[in-house]
Structure formats: structure tokens, C-alpha cells
Fold this protein.
Amino acid sequence: MKKKIIVLTLGALLLGSGVTYAAATNYYADLLAGQQGQMGDIIEQGYEERVNEVGEQVHHDMVTYVSTERDRILKEAQAYLKTKLDKEQQDKMNEHSQAIQAESERILNELKLKVDELIEN
């Protein structure tokens, strides 16, 4: 009889600890499940922060790109302007030089004729 009571007591203890374990497991599972909404909020907040960071970074990068392109365009346009003005200057100088050269030749020829006349007289 003592053996039977001991076996029944041990069986009840094992059965009781299993129920307690199962109840504890459910409690912690429920605790975790109860935090799902909070975890979802944390994920959503992280998403919104990252989207804002990406938006700000894209804006910053594009402003920098625009500035770089503006500088490049101005540099090329100024170089083009200088080239065109330099060509115009050179063309004007060539035109004046040709007129000066023609006038020089005319004057020289007239002076030679004068020298020839002086020598003949």
C-alpha cells in the first residue's frame, strides 16, 4: 500500500508539473503574442525613418549633382565664349592687317616711283 501511495504521489507530482509547464509555456507565448503590435509599430517606425533618410539623401545628392552640372555648363559655355571672341578678335586683326599691308605696299610703290623720278630729274 505504501508503494501504491508513493507511486500515485509521484505520478500526481509529474502530472502537476507538466500542467504547470504547459501553462507557463502558454503564458510566455501569450506574452510574446501580446507584443506583436508593439513590434509591428517598431518596424513601421524604422521604415518611416529610413524612408525619410533616403528622401533626404536623394535630395542632397541631387542638389549636389545639379550644382556640379551647373558649374560644368558654365565652364564649357565660358570656354566657348572665349574661343568665339578670340576668333572674332583674330579675324578683325587679320582684316586690319591685310588693309595695313595693302596700304604699306601702295605707299612703298609710290615712294619707289618718287625715288625713280628724283633720280631721273
Observations:
- DSSP finds two helices and no strands in the chain.
